[in-house]
Design goal:
By secondary structure, the protein is mainly alpha-helical. The chain has one domain. A hairpin with a 4-residue loop joins strand 2 and strand 3.
Length: about 230
């Protein structure tokens, strides 16, 4: 049990035949990749479960995810909307009965190409485009699973409760876990990708180091390649 709370009852669950019908029921929605939605303050869950052989698997993936949002709301209350998105979506994703098999591939690719998103950038919202949003979900799932394994259910519960008071994203992490978000991100990278803090720093700074190297070396190459004057002989 990830969070030791029960959802408020009654709750209403509406199931649509496909994601397009669900999205049509959400005025103002701009993301065309949304397949499920929860309104925790109303106790309402919307799911899109297409017919087919994977119908049961999809239900067992979507329903725990959206129900977790209701559990989170019962802990945080009216400040739920300002709770870090990486935390709420990450916790909801680790509640799914069947992990997304593509998350690991996307994470490895992003790590190799130095394209991982900072968790500070995922505090308030996820990217709107489908590719970046998928990476944000993959990272948040992996990061919150790391926090859950490291600090347990109590640690995750206390972290969510910290945001009842309206603390900011990074302040809540520091107050609960005693580390900055940047430090925890470094710990997660090391645990997930066997990356040392030093190599992570070098990877992050490598574009700037390359520019600095070019600035320093270019004048030297110009001097070396410049034609020399022939000295006069008497």
């Amino acid at each position: 049990k990830i969070l030791p709370v029960a959802p408020a009852l009654p709750m209403k669950i509406y199931i649509y035949a496909n994601a397009e019908d669900l999205q049509a029921a959400l005025p103002g929605l701009t993301e065309n990749w949304v397949a499920g939605q929860a309104s925790p303050d109303l106790g309402v869950i919307l799911l899109s479960i297409p017919q087919g052989p994977d119908q049961t698997l999809e239900l067992e993936r979507q329903l725990p995810h959206e129900m977790m949002h209701l559990l989170e709301y019962s802990l945080v209350g009216t400040h739920y909307g300002s709770t870090p998105v990486w935390l709420t979506e990450g916790a909801a994703s680790i509640a799914e009965l069947y992990p997304n098999a593509d998350y690991e591939r996307v994470l490895d690719s992003a790590m190799t190409n130095n394209e991982l998103l900072s968790f500070a950038s995922l505090c308030n919202a996820f990217p709107r485009d489908a590719g970046s949003a998928f990476l944000a979900y993959a990272q948040s799932t992996s990061f919150v699973r790391f926090l859950y394994r490291t600090y347990g259910s109590d640690g995750l519960t206390n972290l969510l409760r910290q945001y009842q008071t309206g603390l900011g994203c990074e302040e809540g992490v520091q107050a609960t876990l005693g580390k900055s978000l940047t430090e925890l991100e470094s710990d997660w990278r090391q645990a997930s990708f066997s990356v040392s803090p030093a190599s992570a720093a070098i990877r992050t700074l490598s574009p700037y180091l390359l520019v600095a190297l070019l600035v320093l070396v270019a004048p030297l190459l110009w001097v070396i390649g410049r034609p020399r004057r022939q000295e006069k002989t008497s």
